[in-house]
Amino acid sequence: MTLATDAIVRSGRSESGPTISLATPGDFFALLKPRVMSLVVFTALAGLMAAPSRPHPVIAFISILAIAVGGGAAGCLNMWWDADIDALMSRTRNRPIPAGRITREAALGFGLVMSGGAVITLGLAANWTAASLLAFTIFFYIVVYSMWLKRSTPQNIVIGGAAGALPPVIGYAAATGDVTLDAAIMFAIIFLWTPPHSWALALFRSEDYARAKVPMLPVAAGRAVTRAQILIYTLVLVPVGLTPALLGLGGPAYGLVALLMGAGMLHLAVKLYRERDEKAANLTAKKLFGFSILYLATLFGVLLIERIVALVLAQGAW
Amino acid sequence: MREVKDGLVLSEEEKRRRRQRSLALALVLGALVLLFYAITIVKQGAALNALHS
Lengths: 318, 53
Description:
By secondary structure, chain A is an all-alpha fold. Chain A has helices at about 5-10, 25-30, 35-50, 55-80, 85, 105-125, 130-150, 155-165, 165-175, 180-205, 205-210, 215-220, 225-245, 250-275, 280-315; strands at about 15, 15-20.
């Protein structure tokens, strides 16, 4: 981003006088990070469906919508805070703020209004336990992760990963008003999945992070340490991914899928750890990054399908 | 400097984009009205059922 563009983005004024925004509704939608939001919807829905009691379908729908908007609002506030480093990275430089389509002030206002609206709606529709968890998630993602950890420690995404792991807990709390061991297991799966997923991305995007001075693990501690850490976290993740089948949260189908997908994750993590050629390592890191998304989506997808099938078989149980 | 003596005159593109944003905002506000109506009906229904059971 040039200094002139930066000035426009920050002030909302051009050098030739006051301007009227050229932002489209699509630009504001992009601020909500729709792809991240879809994963939030998916995991929150799995959490809600995994609960022993289910709310009225309308309340369930509105709860998931509120969680999705809350997650999107957190993404928007993250873009407001990180606009300077987003402009330096090829993956993020076309986002609405660094591209100059939306001012930082407009994004801040939009993010705050959406956050407040989502929390209040969830509180009124479901319960205030779920609403408090959603508010905490947004606070944790913006203040603890974006403002504090992201630019100061290579452990940023390890601790910050808690924010991304909370949606199934919020979904579960929206249904029951409570947080139990089942919800904690779903939290643990996403929490342990985040480091190998994010570090795989950081391995093949390390130049971007170095340019933006974000101390991701490959930048701060080197590629060998990152590959070892990815393997360690994957070794912990795979057995934790199996626990829903052992504790009754997931059925036999879940157990089988978790075993097969876990073997796939482990295979790629070991391959990445052993790889010494950097080009080949980047290729494996890309594969691991893609497979990790499939891993999480499949695990929560099967959990969801098992619940829907059980619901259909027990007709009228809702 | 852009001419602002007689007020800021919007270009056609600026007018079009503003119309799009206004329409999107109207749709969101309309959806919110329906959303809170639905919450009210469901909550009242549940409370009434509890009262009569």
